Backbone:
């Protein structure tokens, strides 16, 4: 490190770290600011939302945005709980399945020997850089020809093979020393046991990261609702929030702020649950 | 004698192939779900979109596809007014942003790996943007202009930028206005670097330090070689994240021309755009790989070992003297 110098007696150590704080604290404030902003914005009444110059903190917090949001929601035939339920079930399944599939494939690609392995990883890399927008219509055709339009499967299936998360997870598994796996094999573990008992615990940070990425992708996804469903009752919360706030009214701005807070809270909860496993296992994993 | 040998050898070979077959089977079993998912929703769809890119596709009353060769691509580069410009803007932006994001996240990871108080809290804060950087929250933020650095509008910076040629000053201006966006985009990268930095052996650092190496030298000679594979991984991840993210202007352009029949030249044209774009992204990845790949893994390792040995030797000599 550039700081620190050549002497490092314990007494001077804390002093030497001071410059780091000098950089870190302001940047950390930057990083945390958007969350404060989202929360503040949701509780701003109309006049504060449109105030110029815009203010960061709310001065007179009010629930008017939320009231507007729920009133509009009550006006449309389908109860909001239906969308919440759809979103929850789709999100849960996509996150679980995509993590399962990526870790399994990552383990095989990294540690098992079989023909076609290299080709599969190359295909993944190709899929990685391909813009998904370009495949929306072929995807639609596939989904309609399989006959799963307007089902949960239409939300789930297109999203569970995530090239990014396979890529990340495979790179992580590459770092797991082979000697660990050999030791387990000598003890009589087969590949499935090795996967479950050795690989999964060791790559927890990658799993958590993959889960967060998958969650991001599915929870905020409005495309599957937009394209692969036509029945209102099969659509997700993200899509519904988008239609509510999409109307360019003055109240729409406030409702958008409230909606983005509502959509953001599950993100934050998941993150709080995941962060300890992301951060802690980083420090103590056998990856050296 | 030879008779015995073959008899002993034959079953051995048989079990060997059997085991190998079983291993192949297990391997395929593990990747099968993924292979199916990708073949159906990526490969097949990609092939189809390529065939659309070479055709004129109309969505009015059903789907009509007429093959027309490279016509879409020719139109794209000869008479389209927005796409080539957007593409070159994107490429320049990538060239500026990727090194910044990678360097920033390396610096952050180094700081987060040093022994400071509240390290856990800082790590959480820096990973936090990952959950913000996508979706409606980000849209909301960019809409409100929170993501730009206010000082860009100051006269001094404007003056400097005005002296630069336009093709260069434009991306730099964009860079400034999305600087905070860049910081928010570096969560996963910081995490990857932190994991990589754990591999830097403290013994080696200490040896170098005893040997009189400055922090700067330790950084370049020990830390950087160790995290080099992570630098490549991060560059790749950054390129992918930037080029497929929702804030991307080109993706918006493709999406609009796909569904807006008034603007667009049909879905085939949008597919041609998407393929051209993917090609540019692939080129960017190739460039990153060419620059950052590990050309002489063994040599670096050998050098480091020699350096370390030399270090200990040197230390002993000093003690004796």
Residues:
């Amino acid at each position: 490190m550039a700081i620190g110098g050549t002497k490092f007696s314990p007494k001077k150590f804390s002093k030497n770290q001071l410059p780091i704080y000098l950089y870190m604290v302001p940047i950390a404030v930057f990083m945390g600011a958007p969350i404060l902003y989202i929360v503040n914005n949701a509780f701003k009444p109309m006049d504060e939302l449109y105030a110029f110059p815009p203010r960061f903190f709310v001065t007179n917090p009010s629930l008017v945005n939320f009231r507007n949001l729920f009133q509009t929601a009550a006006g449309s035939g389908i109860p909001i709980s239906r969308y919440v339920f759809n979103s929850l079930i789709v999100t849960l399944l996509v996150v679980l399945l995509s993590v399962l599939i990526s870790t399994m494939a990552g383990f095989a690609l990294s540690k098992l020997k079989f023909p076609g392995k290299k080709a599969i990883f190359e295909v993944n890399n190709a899929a990685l850089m391909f813009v998904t927008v370009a495949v929306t219509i072929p995807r639609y055709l596939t989904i309609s020809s399989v006959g799963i339009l307007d089902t949960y499967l239409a939300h789930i299936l297109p999203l569970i093979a995530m090239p990014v998360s396979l890529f990340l997870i495979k790179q992580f598994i590459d770092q797991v020393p082979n000697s660990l796996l050999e030791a387990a094999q000598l003890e009589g573990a087969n590949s499935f046991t090795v996967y479950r008992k050795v690989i999964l615990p060791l790559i927890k940070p990658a799993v958590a990261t993959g889960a967060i990425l998958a969650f991001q992708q599915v929870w905020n996804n409005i495309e599957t609702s937009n394209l692969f469903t036509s029945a209102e009752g099969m659509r997700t919360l993200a899509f519904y929030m988008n239609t509510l706030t999409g109307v360019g009214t003055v109240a729409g701005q406030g409702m958008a702020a409230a909606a983005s807070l509502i959509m953001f809270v599950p993100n934050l909860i998941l993150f709080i649950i995941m962060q300890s496993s992301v951060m802690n296992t980083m420090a103590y994993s056998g990856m050296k | 004698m030879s008779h015995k040998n073959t008899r002993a050898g034959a079953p051995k070979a048989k079990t060997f192939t059997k085991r190998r077959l079983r291993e192949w089977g297990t391997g395929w079993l593990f990747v099968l779900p993924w292979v199916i998912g990708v073949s159906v929703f990526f490969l097949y769809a990609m092939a189809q979109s390529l065939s659309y890119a070479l055709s004129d596709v109309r969505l009015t009353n059903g789907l009509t596809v007429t093959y027309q060769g490279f016509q879409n691509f020719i139109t794209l580069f000869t008479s389209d007014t927005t796409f080539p410009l957007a593409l070159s803007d994107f490429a320049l932006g990538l060239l500026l942003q990727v090194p910044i994001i990678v360097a920033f996240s390396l610096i952050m990871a180094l700081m987060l790996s040093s022994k400071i108080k509240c390290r856990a809290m800082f790590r959480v804060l820096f990973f936090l943007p990952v959950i913000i950087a996508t979706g409606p929250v980000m849209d909301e933020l960019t809409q409100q202009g929170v993501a730009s650095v206010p000082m860009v509008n100051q006269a001094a910076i404007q003056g400097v930028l005005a002296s630069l040629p336009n093709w260069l000053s434009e991306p730099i201006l964009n860079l400034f206005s999305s600087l905070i966006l860049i910081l928010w985009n570096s969560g996963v990268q910081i995490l990857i670097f932190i994991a990589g930095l754990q591999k830097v052996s403290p013994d080696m650092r200490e040896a170098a330090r005893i040997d009189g190496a400055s922090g700067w030298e330790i950084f370049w000679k020990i830390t950087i070689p160790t995290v080099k594979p992570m630098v490549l991984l991060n560059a790749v991840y950054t390129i992918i994240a930037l080029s497929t993210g929702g804030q991307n202007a080109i993706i918006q352009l493709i999406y609009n021309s796909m569904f807006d029949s008034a603007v667009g030249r049909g879905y085939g044209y949008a597919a041609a755009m998407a393929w051209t774009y993917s090609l540019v992204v692939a080129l960017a990845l190739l460039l990153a790989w060419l620059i950052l790949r590990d050309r002489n893994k063994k040599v670096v390792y050998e050098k480091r070992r020699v350096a370390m040995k030399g270090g200990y030797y040197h230390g002993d000599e000093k003690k004796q003297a």
Chain A has two domains: 10-67, 74-284. The CA atoms of residues 157 and 236 of chain A lie 15 Å apart. DSSP finds 15 helices and no strands in chain A.
